[in-house]
Amino acid sequence: MAKRDYYEVLGVSRDSSSGDIKKAYRKLAVQFHPDKNPDDPGAEDKFKEIGEAYEVLMDDQKRAAYDRYGHAAFGQGGPAAGGGFGGGGFHDPMDIFREVFGGGGGGASIFEEIFGAAAGGGRRQRGMKRPGSDLRYDLPITLEEAAFGTEKELELEKFASCDQCSGSGAAGGKSDVRGCPTCGGAGQVVTTRGFFQVQQTCPACGGSGETIANPCGGCQGEGRVQKTSRIKLKIPAGISEGSRLRSSGNGDAGLRGGPSGDLYVVIHIREHDIFQRDHADLYCEVPIPFSMAALGGDLVVPTLEGQASIKVPAGTQTDTAFRLRSKGLPDLNSGKKGDLLVNVQVEVPTKLSKEQEAKLREFAESIGEENSPMRESFIEKAKRFFK
Predict the structure, then answer these.
(1) Does the domain formed by 126-271 have CATH 1.10.3720.10?
(2) How confident is the model at residue 80 (pLDDT cuts 50, 70, 90)?
(3) Residues 37, 38, 41, 45, CA torsion sign
(4) Which numeric CATH code is attached to 276-386?
(5) For the chain, which residues make up each domain, given as ranges?
(6) Which residue(s) pair with 135 in the sheet?
(7) How far apart are the first and last CA of the chain?
(8) Angle at Cα 81 formed by Cα 78 and Cα 83, nearest 5°?
């Protein structure tokens, strides 16, 4: 199902200020909060969509990428892949909600104060395992790999599930896992402050709702250990410098069986010896001898797909550009290829023999002003300038 436009999701215009965006988010987030709509399964999806739109449009860098590339700035693979930020790096919509409504740090948010301690994500967090961290990997690739796509095997150090306890953190497996006596297995504790009830993460179990009688010796009760992991990643054709690809679940493993974070791979394209890139187009400079510029001829030029030939007309000047259609990179969204623009540079001989020098002088004296229209035009302009 196609994603909706982020501006449409929040009901704001494309030139809206950050204040307008935040105001729209606050209204919609309260309206579609899952705890306010327990009988509406679509409310949670709507809530996530609102949070994702808010996170992108409130970040200047992400908003600029979205305005330029649309949802393709945050996807991976296919026609809506790669650009800008890969999988987007989107945060938990509940965390965004707490940040906006002032519920960070474990205190009650405005929403919780209005609708009670069960709101604002309390139900969602009950007994929740602590997730692992997202990771970043900077990956250098060649221009050719960016043009045609490739598959890379990445090697990185990260937390992985402990084999000794199968990620439970307990030496005896699940039999050694008990409900936390402090929070009763809820993962949250509730205290009263004046007229309000404040719901906070349980300090005894860290929100997992569990305690371990006999911790695993291999991971000291964490359920995860540091390991070297190898991950295969497909690089889509046409990917750009700085694109961020998301590999779901390949970040650090969570504590005691908690969900793994994601891996974000940032693409860096190495400088090429011949080509420069501008979006889907490629540029290169090719020197040609003075004789070819004057007489014309066939010029063989490099492309990413091999050699190609250009017809150079007689009288070609330096900096003349020739366009080779569809010899650039594929566009990440449409798949349509850009062009290769070949800029010719007329190379003047630097070492002449006496005989060659004499012939060249003879040639220079034999041609008239009509054979140098650019020079003649410049001289006329200079005369008018100095009058």
Answers:
(1) no
(2) very low
(3) positive
(4) 2.60.260.20
(5) 126-271, 276-386
(6) 263
(7) 71
(8) 155
Residue 321 CA neighbour count, 13 Å, CB half? 9
pLDDT beyond 80 at 24: yes
pLDDT digits (tens, 9 = 90+) for 206-216: 677 778 878 88
261 and 132 Cβ atoms separated by less than 8 Å:
yes
Write the CB contacts of 277 (distance below 8 Å, at least 6 apart in sequence). 143, 269, 283, 329
Domains 126-271 and 276-386 fall in the same CATH topology: yes
Q: Which among 259, 267, 238 has a CA at the least distance from the CA of 331? A: 238
Number of other CB atoms surrounding residue 323 within 10 Å: 12
Sign of the alpha-carbon dihedral angle for 98, 99, 102, 105? positive
Is 44 within 8 Å of 38 (Cβ atoms)? no
Note if the pTM is more than 0.70.
no
Which residue's entry shows tokens 């809530």?
47
DSSP 215-239: B-TTTTTSSEEEEEEEEEEEEPTT-
